[in-house]
Specification:
The complex is a heterodimer of chains A (273) and B (215).
Chain A lengths: L8 E3 L2 E2 L6 E5 L6 H18 L2 E5 L18 H16 L2 E4 L3 H7 L5 E4 L7 H10 L2 E5 L6 H13 L5 E5 L2 E2 L5 E2 L3 H8 L3 E5 L5 E2 L8 E2 L4 H11 L3 E5 L17 H16 L1
Helix pairs in contact in A: 1-2, 1-8, 3-4, 4-5, 7-8
Chain B lengths: L4 E6 L2 H6 L4 E4 L19 H5 L4 E3 L3 H7 L5 E4 L7 H10 L2 E5 L6 H10 L5 E5 L2 E2 L5 E2 L2 H10 L3 E4 H5 L19 H9 L5 E5 L6 H9 L1
Classes of the chains: A alpha/beta (273), B alpha/beta (215).
Chain lengths: 273, 215
């Protein structure tokens, strides 16, 4: 697979390819070092079993909680320290969200993939900083935006000299407090020459449907993931927690280990078919 | 009856000059390339010498820090309406904050966003709800909810007509006819809205025409 001027190499251990699925997965929020380590070890082993490439993901700051009382996370300094420890101890590449140019500079020293959150994908200063980092930039498609908008942003990043861009579908607004997955976008992203990623857990969110928080439909995540793999994606993005019921964010959509294993088993059958 | 107020999003002093009858909101923070990526945003100070009552579109804490020393008010775009750090910084600036409701945000949740702006002088800007791609619909329930909360409401006519950004290539053309502005204005006035926002770049002359019609 060839993405414009990019050969798909994210880092030493990961090259995006339809021949070998990449899984970007981890807890929504890096609530503790212990959580990160346990999830990373579990997923590394599961992915290795199936021959998948694996990138650990976790956010150090949930900057856009529904309510002002929502827990944000460990913050930049502590979060990056924990991420660095996880990367080193478990031996996995790292992905995290960035929300400002300052965070880009700090996170680029530790992580292999910098993710631009969906709500911030139009924020120029963040896009420029991410482009200049030289790291792989993952753009989360804004829920209300047409995929064409993501191509404009992606091309801006490529024009700035960084061709390592992935576009991640995470569901489109469908009325209030609801999302629907438009699988056409996965096809369009590939046709446009970008690497395509599918976020199966956020696509099952019901934004703001809880009391001061988002709800979600965890039970549909496996079906959404299977459909995306059938259409064809270069990577699958999942949020996994050792105990989702106790999670500090996205309690209704994060996968426990059993469900994550089930999805990866199903993914293996589809990509081998 | 309150007088009508029209705000115009402008990318330059030249655009603002064309609609002097309205209040400019400058959307022209310049992102710059520098060796370490930490380029401080720039906003021409002369703009606020010429238009001292003007505001600034802000999306980051650093932009707020700079703009609050120059601009009379701050305008937060819809995509940023939930960002806690940005809202907190805007509240601390002491400036009036125009907070645009993101098209993806259920109307009751804008009240939660106002909470994050605790104590600030806030005007909610209703820019429509996402209706498929590159389209918005004006939901009267949103106007009613915010009105009933006691927070003033403004209406972003340019966003309603044609949202920012790349247009969905299959969007029907009839839906972006500027003649629909009249319908939007009349609907908003029924809810006591007397402040309207237009974008001079996307709809040149609209704010001028509106100023002439509504004054």
């Amino acid at each position: 697979m060839y993405f414009g001027h990019w050969d798909g190499v994210v880092c030493n251990d990961v090259k995006l390819s339809r021949e070998r699925l990449t899984v970007m997965a981890g807890p929504c929020m890096l609530e503790s070092l212990e959580l990160g380590l346990s999830v990373a070890k579990f997923l590394r082993e599961e992915c290795a079993r199936h021959g998948f490439q694996y990138i650990f993901k976790a956010s150090f700051d949930k900057a856009n909680r529904t309510s002002k009382d929502g827990v944000r996370g460990p913050g930049l300094d502590q979060g990056l320290q924990w991420l660095a420890t996880i990367g080193k101890e478990v031996g996995v590449p790292l992905l995290t969200d960035v929300h400002s140019a300052e965070q880009v500079v700090a996170a680029a020293k530790v992580c292999d993939v910098l993710q631009v959150p969906a709500f911030l994908c139009l924020e120029k200063s963040l896009i420029v900083a991410a482009a200049q980092s030289g790291k792989c930039v993952q753009l989360k498609k804004g829920q209300h935006l047409p995929v064409e908008e993501m191509f404009v942003i992606g091309k801006d990043i490529v024009s700035a000299g960084n061709s390592r861009v992935t576009i991640c579908e995470r569901g489109s607004s469908f009325g209030y407090n609801n999302l629907v997955v438009d699988y056409r976008n996965l096809h369009e992203v590939s046709e446009a020459g970008f690497a395509s990623v599918f976020d199966a857990t956020h696509s099952a969110q019901l934004p703001g449907a809880g009391v001061g928080s988002s709800g979600g439909l965890r039970h549909v995540v496996p079906a959404l993931a299977r459909a995306a793999l059938a259409v064809g994606v270069d990577a699958l993005f999942l949020e996994v927690h050792s105990d989702p019921a106790q999670a500090l964010s996205d309690r209704e959509t994060q996968l426990d280990f059993a469900l994550a294993a089930q999805i990866l088993n199903q993914a293996a059958k589809i990509v081998r078919a | 009856m309150k007088p009508v107020e029209i705000l115009t999003v402008c990318r330059s002093g030249g655009e603002a000059e064309k609609c002097r009858e309205t209040l400019p909101i400058f959307d022209c923070f310049d992102w710059r390339v520098s060796a370490d990526s930490l380029a401080d945003p720039e906003m021409p100070e002369t703009l606020f010498t010429i238009f001292p009552a003007g505001g600034a579109v802000v999306a980051t804490m650093r932009q707020i820090e700079i703009a609050s020393q120059l601009a009379s008010f701050l305008y937060i775009p819809g995509e940023i309406c939930r960002q806690g750090d940005v809202l907190e910084a805007a509240a601390k600036s002491g400036r009036r904050v125009y907070l645009e409701r993101g098209p993806f945000l259920a109307p009751p949740d804008i009240l939660r966003a106002i909470d994050k702006l605790s104590g600030a002088d806030v005007v909610v800007v209703e820019a429509g709800s996402a209706f498929g791609y590159s389209d918005r619909v004006l939901d009267p329930r949103a106007l009613a909810l915010v009105r009933d909360s006691g927070t003033p409401v403004a209406l972003h006519l340019s966003e309603l007509l044609e949202p920012r950004g790349a247009r969905y290539r299959w969007r029907s053309q009839w839906s972006i006819d500027v003649r629909f502005v009249e319908a939007y204005v009349n609907a908003a006035k029924a809810f006591g809205v007397h402040t309207f926002v237009c974008d001079e770049f996307r709809h040149p002359g609209l704010s001028r025409d509106l100023a002439a019609t509504l004054s």
